[in-house]
Each structure stands twice: as C-alpha cells, then as structure tokens.
C-alpha cells in the first residue's frame, strides 16, 4: 500500500484519537511527546513534514494502558510489541494499522520513568538505557544490521557482537531494561525521563513540567501535552515557534506500507 504523507498522518491522527479516548476513559495520564507536542502547539496538528507520532505514559500506568488498549482499540488498529511479535526490534510498543507492519505507519507509545536528581547519575541512567535498547535491537536484527547492505566497519562488528548475543536471551535483556526503568519510582522523584528517546540526557526534565497535562487542539481533536508546555518545548527546541530551514525539513511524500 502506498500512502501520501497526509494520508499517513490522517491514519495516525485516528490512532491518537483512540488512545486519548481510552486514556480519558480509564483515568490514565498521557502526553504528546517531543515533536508531536511541538506540532500540537505550533501547527495545531502534526508537523507538516513529520511522519512520526510519539505519546508518553508514566511507567506506573503503562501496564494498565497496554491491557485496556488491547481490549478497546477498534478493529482497525493493533499493538505491535515484543510480547506478541518475536521479530519486534525495540523495547516500547507501537500502535499500527491492522494487517500492516509498523515500520513507517505507527504511533510510538513511550514510557515516562523516574530518574536521579544528580546530573552525573542522570547521564549514567540515560546511557545505560540506550545500551539496553541497542543490544535488544541488535539481538533482534542481527542479519539486518550485519548484512551486506551495511558498511565494512559494521560488518566487522558481527564477529565480535554476534557470538556474544547468541548466548544472551532476549527475555534477559528485557528484564534488565525493566529493572533499570523502575530504579527510581516515579511517584517519589523530582526528575523524569524517556529512557527510549533519542535525545539522551536532554530527555530529563522536572516531573512538575508534565504535571497533569493541558488539553490543546490537534487536527480537530483535544489532546494532552505537558502542562507547562512552553518550558518543555524550549528545553528541547529553544525558539520552538521558529520554523526550521526548508532544507532541514523532511521531504518524503510517498510511504510504502507493507502487509504482514
């Protein structure tokens, strides 16, 4: 199936609508995260050139969300995750269009976890989380990451990494990651982070910035962003209302969505 960017965004917005309704119905906190929150504030919807949507849920409500969402999502959508898909490559779930893979069309469901108040410990916490994510991805995709299509330098890594990973069960990596994410109980901390995020320690912010969330407009919906979204977005993007140079915007217009 071939979709234009606008068609893909429209389907992802449907998913956001269902997630929002489920969370509100079950008193589960959620927030549009990073670029999705930016899109809501700056564009009143997805960033026009962005194909990705991120939602983040506090870790102490995450299992409840997965349970109710699996029961209450419409038949149009499904949750893709390592507990039902042995080839799933990462440690957070995605919601996608039923019958199709979640590589291009998806809404990421991320966890908001507690972290230390000390800067050095925050840095260590972020790096360790990234390590677990990378190891899990490599374990799941050894042939992809070390195939002929990658650089000679990366292929060289297979002779070091592959034998080691063959003897590490994926369930063990998951257990280590989950233990790490629960090291600082979110109810007791001043600072929180997204352990799966690409921004590293920049994901660390005060929990009070998220608060209970603020409802804003998003493509005709009312959805939650962090309560103090101005401070939140400045932390990530600086002058967040300023548009990036056209050359730094995504320009892909057609997406291939393949069947499972």
Describe the protein's architecture and organization.
The protein is α+β, with helices and mostly antiparallel strands. The chain has a domain at 2-115 and 190-256: Beta Polymerase, domain 2 (2-Layer Sandwich), CATH 3.30.460. Helix content is 42%, strand content 18%. The protein is built from nine helices and eleven strands. It has helices at 5-25, 35-42, 59-72, 119-140, 142-145, 152-166, 170-181, 207-210, 229-237, and strands at residues 2-4, 31-32, 53-58, 77-80, 94-97, 107-115, 191-193, 205-206, 214-218, 221-225, 254-256. Strands 2, 3, 4, 5, 6, 7 and 8 form a seven-stranded mixed β-sheet that branches. A two-stranded antiparallel sheet has the order 1-11. A hairpin with a 2-residue loop joins strand 9 (214-218) and strand 10 (221-225). Residues 143-149 have low confidence and may be disordered.
Secondary-structure blueprint:
Elements: E1 2-4, H1 5-25, E2 31-32, H2 35-42, E3 53-58, H3 59-72, E4 77-80, E5 94-97, E6 107-115, H4 119-140, H5 142-145, H6 152-166, H7 170-181, E7 191-193, E8 205-206, H8 207-210, E9 214-218, E10 221-225, H9 229-237, E11 254-256
Parallel strand pairs: 3-6
Antiparallel strand pairs: 1-11, 2-3, 4-5, 5-6, 6-7, 7-8, 9-10
């Amino acid at each position: 199936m071939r979709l234009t960017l606008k068609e893909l965004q429209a389907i992802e917005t449907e998913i956001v609508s269902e997630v929002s309704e489920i969370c509100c119905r079950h008193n589960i906190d959620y927030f549009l995260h990073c670029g999705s929150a930016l899109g809501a504030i700056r564009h009143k919807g997805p960033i026009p050139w962005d194909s990705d949507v991120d939602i983040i849920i506090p870790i102490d409500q995450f299992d409840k969300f997965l349970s109710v969402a699996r029961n209450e999502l419409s038949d149009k959508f499904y949750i893709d995750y390592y507990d039902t898909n042995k080839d799933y490559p990462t440690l957070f779930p995605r919601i996608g269009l039923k019958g199709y893979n979640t590589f291009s069309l998806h809404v990421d469901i991320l966890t908001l976890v507690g972290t230390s108040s000390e800067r050095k410990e925050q840095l260590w916490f972020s790096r360790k989380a990234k390590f677990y994510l990378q190891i899990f991805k490599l374990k799941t995709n050894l042939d992809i990451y070390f195939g002929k299509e990658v650089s000679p330098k990366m292929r060289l890594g297979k002779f070091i990494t592959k034998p080691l990973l063959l003897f590490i069960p994926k369930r063990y990596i998951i257990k280590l990651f989950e233990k790490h994410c629960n090291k600082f109980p979110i109810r007791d901390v001043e600072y929180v982070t997204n352990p799966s995020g690409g921004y590293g320690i920049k994901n660390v912010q005060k929990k009070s910035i998220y608060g209970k969330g603020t409802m804003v407009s998003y493509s005709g919906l009312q959805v939650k962003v962090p309560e103090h979204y101005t401070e939140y977005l400045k932390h990530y993007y600086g002058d967040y209302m300023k548009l990036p140079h056209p050359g730094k915007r995504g320009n892909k217009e057609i997406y291939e969505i393949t069947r499972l």
